[in-house]
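Kindly review this protein for my students:
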Amino acid sequence: MGKYYYKKSGKNKLKKYLRLISILLFVIGTSILSYFLFPLISWQIYFQPAFTSQNITSSIPYASIVDLAKNSIDTTDYTRAENWFPNFNPSSNNLDPISYAISIPKINLEEAEVSASDTDLTKHLVNYQGTSIPGKNGNAVIFGHSTLPQLFNAKDYKTIFANAYKLKNGDTIFATVKGVKYSYKIFKIIIVDPSDTSALVQDYNNSHLTLVTCTPPGTIWKRLVIKSRLERI
């Protein structure tokens, strides 16, 4: 009489499932870690070399994983300009209903709409409340979104300032207000904390235009501030 052997496959199946679960957990963990670290990697690739060449001192530290996690789960609505500097209280909350355009040849930006009538950064750039308008004495502060440089789209206001890090002192910003074209020359570029509202200060001895966006790419940690002064009409 022949002998029959039955192979118990239960343990082999269990090992197979455990192996698959381990691989899945490894992939998930690696993806989460990469998501948190990618902004820092992007900073090293894109922004830091550009700022180093311009002698701009960076105040961006190597953040801990806890800090990166907090940053990633921040539920603040940054499509609203008023949330970018939470400690800033404008002297006037009334928004001038004016709308105008800016062009920045250095970063291929042409006739981008700027609105002073609301603070929705998904529809246009925002001339922040309580600040001046180009052509007038004071400081016109313009907010705009940034993202990874490779995602730049001049027609998408969620990515419109992705290449702002390429701007340098001496570059030109044009503002066209009510048919009049004003030329502003960049003279200072700095990086500040969201608690630092110095970019919004008004100086009525001259006409200034200031661009503000988030940095490094993919984060809301700091603010890139690009200051320019009226050159000629």
Summary: The chain has two helices and eight strands.
